[in-house]
Amino acid sequence: MSHLMDSITPVGNGTGRGDAPVTIRTARLDDAAGLLRLMRAVDDETPFMIYAKGERSLSVEDTRNLLVEAGLVRGLALFVAQVGPELAGYTLAVSGGLARTRHCVRISALAVRRRWWRQGLGRAMLANVEQWARGMGAQRLELETMAANDAAQGLYESMGFAVEGRRRRAFLVAGAWMDALVMGKLLED
Question: Among 81, 107, 88, which residue's Cα sits nearest to residue 38?
Fold first, then answer.
């Protein structure tokens, strides 16, 4: 079963960007530089990433090593959303490695460049991770999102996730405390 979703056309927003086909695929070694640029750009564009603007200290070589690890470790996946030649989003998912947690897949990151927000990329990437998780035999997806990130929470809820808990003062963003919402989705057969 393939976990790649080819030729997804996101809904346009009047800018003409909706006409470009989107490919959700496993990140490759030759994506390292572009992926690092994408990660840093997203960190700079939104307060809802764990890294603050300019804080991500990875090098291209570090990113390449992450991609090698993702390719070698069963249960670790790094996917990118590519629009034309541009990397527009990424997601990182990890399945539990122990007998008691193997049924869980944690979505550690889901990020989209601002110019591609509300075009269907986040939804497509989340659906891709779910398909991958089902292929791994997972029974549960879980993630955390910053409580103030209404757009992300709305997306996750529309995809069947429910709020399962709240971690108070989990983040300090621009001098203000922000809670984290713990969300989960049970994968029915």
Answer: 88
Number of structural domains in the chain: 1
pTM for this prediction:
0.85
Contact 10, 116 (CB under 8 A): yes
- Return the closest-CA partner of residue 91 out of 112, 74, 75: 112
In a domain, 182, yes or no: no
Query: In the structure encoding, which two tokens stand for residue 91, read together?
Result: 């997601």
User: What residue numbers bound the domain in which 90 lies?
Assistant: 5-141
State the Cα–Cα distance between residues 31 and 82, nearest whole angstrom: 10
pLDDT digits (tens, 9 = 90+) for 72-121: 777 889 999 999 889 999 999 999 888 899 899 999 999 999 999 998 99
The number of helix segments (H) and strand segments (E) in the chain equals 4, 8
Spatial separation of the C-alpha atoms in residues 137 and 121, rounded to whole Å: 24
Round to whole Å and give the CA distance between 113 and 119.
Answer: 11
Q: Is 183 helix (H, G, I), strand (E, B) or coil?
A: strand
- Which stretches of the chain score pLDDT less than 70? 1-19, 189
Domain of residue 41, CATH code: 3.40.630.30
Q: What is the CA radius of gyration of the chain?
A: 16
